[in-house]
Amino acid sequence: MSLENKAAKKHLLLLTSKLGYQARSFAEAAARLGITVVFGSDRCHQLDDPWKDAALPLHFERPEEAAAEIVRAAASQPIDAILALGDRPTIAAARAASALGIEYSPPEAVETCRSKLRQRTVLRAAGLPVPEFFSFTLREEPRNVLARVRFPCVVKPLTLSASQGVIRANNAEEFTSAVARIRALLETPELQVTREPELHRLLVEGYIPGREVAVEGVLEDGHLRILALFDKPDSLEGPYFEESIYVTPSRLTEAEQQAIADCARSCVAALELTHGPLHAEFRINPAGPWVIEVQPRPIGGLCSRVLRFGPDKILLEDLLVRHVLGLEGRELEREDAAAGVMMIPVPASGIFEGVEGSEEASGVPGIVEMEITTRVHDYIAAWPEGASYLGFLFARAGSPQEAESALRVAHAKLRLDIRPRLPVGHPVTGRLPAGLPRE
User: What residues contact 76, with CB distance under 8 A and at least 6 apart?
Assistant: First the structure.
């Protein structure tokens, strides 16, 4: 029986907080194999399928309820595998998979990864290299916390991703300011509506200098297969940590790459992760690798397009779909070529009105694709409040240096039109009614 015929009998549940471009990429990968895709999303359950995609409405902030809803749906619609995109759906995915007898990492292990504090605690207990850390609640006054802080430090929320709300502080004044700024972010309606359980608590950890890298891999029976090691050539020193360029293969020495691989496998064992995609981030300096984060989900956004596998150069999404469904081709090796992706940075918060220079950027030698994912007239936030990029640039070249250079040259040709958002008030002038404060 052909691969397509085997796949045509399979049903894949994709769990995602928003049915955006990453979800579409995985759905397209499944469609190429004829796999039936079912979506699960944390949309409003009171709306009658507004996007006409028959997605299950789920509450990811209540993973037990979400898992129970998935199990009920599976009684009438078979589910052979589950993929969670992004951090929020991972616990519901693990719980549902456990109840349905589907291969997945244990719910307890996934819950540990979901909280930066719990993950740090488990990794430290296992003797793995993590920065010094402690946590405190936003009910505490920052001045009462200062005695415990060693500078420089990094202050961050416990559950947000994409470096949202992550700020470096070098002294007491910067620490107090960082706490106030993160508090304001966590109290916004956009985050409060998520009902994340730990929005009232912050993590403080020692700043680790060094080069940052990312590991992309898959787990099977607890064994980690590393698919790619990405260099992050930009200097991520703060005060904010918006990521930009990923390039592979890594330019680190063989010894450094082996040390990171060994550390990643030790993290997997300590966290008791067993099956599915894995994305992990590390810093490396003369003391060796340091764990920044380990998450049981694939790389975010469209970054996965930079990786291709086998003679047919299938994408990472195709490989992961085959992996979770146990199909042929999941063992294909990554192509031996240099590639890179730039998550186009957000230079300032405001209304995105478009971009000029796209043709010039796309014409740079080595650039193979550019996609602007932000919609015109939408508001976009810069870091540390932001968590979404303007779009993505992709490069393929003869060496990692050439791929990185192509991305930088192409980015320099883009002219972004981002305009300040008018204060709430008159729809044209922005004037506020008398007596109301201005932003």
Answer: none
